C-alpha cells in the first residue's frame, strides 16, 4: 500500500506541474496575440523571434517533465535563431519546430488539466485501496488510475512534441552543412601543408640538386675531382629530396596502411611513439602484422586513414602534453562501423582551443559522419573515443 501511495503521489505531482504549465501557457497566449498583431503591423517584428524562443523554453520544460516521469527524453530539433532581424524572422517562421510547439501548446490547453481528475480519486482511493489492498492484500484499483492519467499526459506530449520527419531532415541538412564546411577547411589546410612542405623542402632540394649538377658539368673537364665531389653532393641532395617526398606522401595516405592494414599500422605507431603503449585489436579486424592470425575484415581506405590519424595525433599529444608514460589503443569492429579508443595516463586537461590537435581530429571524423568524444579531467586520464560508420 505504501508503494501504491508513493507512486500515486509522484503521478499527482507530475499532473499538478502539467496543470501549472498549462495555466502559464494560457496566460502566454496574450503575449502571442500581441506579437502576431505587432508583427503584421511591422513595428513589432523584432518581438517574433524572441517569442518563439520563449515558446521553445516552455516546450523544453514540458519535455523535461515527461523525461522525469517516463525516463525517456523527447528529442528536439530546432534551427538556431541568429543573425540579422530578417534572418531571425525567416528562421522563426520557417522552422518546423515552431509549428510543432504551437500544435502542442494548443492541445495542452485542453489535456493539461488532467490533474483535476486526480483530485477526487485520492479520497476514494485511500478508502477503497486501503481496505482492498491494505487489509485484503489485493492489487490496488483506484490509486493506480492517477498514474495512468500521468502516463496519458506523457504519451500525448511525446506524440505532439516529437520532431517531425521534416524537422529531422532540416536539422540533418544543417548538420551536414557544418560538417562539409569543416571538411573543406580541413582539406584546405591539408593542401596548404602539402604545398608548404613541397615548396620549403623538396623544391629547395631539387633546385640545389640542379645547380650542383650544372656546376659539376662545367668543372668536369678542368677539375674532375671537384666535379666528382659536386656529384656526390648532388646524390645526397637527391636522397634527401626522396626522403622529403616520402614524408609528404605519408601525410596524405601512409603507405603502411596499404601494406599492413590499420591494426598493423597502429602497432607500428605504438612501437615508435616513445610510450609504453598497449594495443588491443578486435578479432574481426584484419591484421597483417607478423604473427597475427589470418582472416578478419578491413574498413574502407578513408575510414582507415581517419582512424590512423586519430591514433597518431592522440599519441603525439600524449607525448608532448600529457606527461604520460603509458597509453592504450583499442580498435573494435562494430556492426556498422569502427570504434577507436585511445587512453593515456597523463595529467589530463586536454582543451580543443589549446592547439592540441583535437579540432583537426574532429574535422576528419565529422567529414565521415563519425563522432568523437573526449574525456580529460584535470589529473587524467585522457580518453579519446571515436566511432566511424562504415559498411563491412
Automatic annotation (TrEMBL):
Enzyme class: transferase
SUPFAM superfamilies: ATPase domain of HSP90 chaperone/DNA topoisomerase II/histidine kinase
The UniProt record lists the keyword Methyltransferase: no
SMART domains the record matches: HATPase_c
Signal peptide: none
Enzyme Commission number(s) of this protein: 2.7.13.3
Catalytic activity: ATP + protein L-histidine = ADP + protein N-phospho-L-histidine
GO molecular function, one term: protein dimerization activity
Parts of the chain that traverse the membrane: 12-31, 37-55, 109-128
InterPro entries the UniProt entry points to: HATPase_C_sf, HATPase_dom, Put_sensor_dom, Sensor_HK_TwoCompSys, Sig_transdc_His_kin_sub3_dim/P
Keyword Phosphoprotein: yes
GO cellular component terms, A-Z: membrane
Residues of the Histidine kinase/HSP90-like ATPase domain: 302-392
Pfam families hit by this protein: HATPase_c, HisKA_3, Sensor
Keywords on record: ATP-binding, Kinase, Membrane, Nucleotide-binding, Phosphoprotein, Transferase, Transmembrane, Transmembrane helix, Two-component regulatory system
PANTHER family associated with the record: NITRATE/NITRITE SENSOR PROTEIN NARX-RELATED (PTHR24421), NITRATE_NITRITE SENSOR PROTEIN NARQ (PTHR24421:SF10)
Protein name: histidine kinase
